[in-house]
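Reviewers of the previous submission asked for a worked example of the structure-prediction workflow described in the proposal, so we include one complete record here. The input consisted solely of the amino acid sequence. No template or homolog information was supplied to the procedure at any stage.
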Amino acid sequence: MSVAPVGTAVQDHVALAEIELCGELIIAASAVPEGRLSADRIDEVLRVAEALPGGPRGETRN
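From that input alone, the workflow returned the following structure tokens.
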């Protein structure tokens, strides 16, 4: 087992991105009076459409 020396800044960019997205979901969930986020709202918060091939909403481009 290897341990990073004290004072060494080690960053896991994937973990940091996941933490940021979780924070955004928590903020969005706290603003919903119904108590639950819809699947569409979760996709919006996580910017799922932006990650799909073809751009927003998965539209195909000709």
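Helices lie at 13-30, 39-45, 48-51. We consider this example representative of the routine output the project will generate in years two and three.
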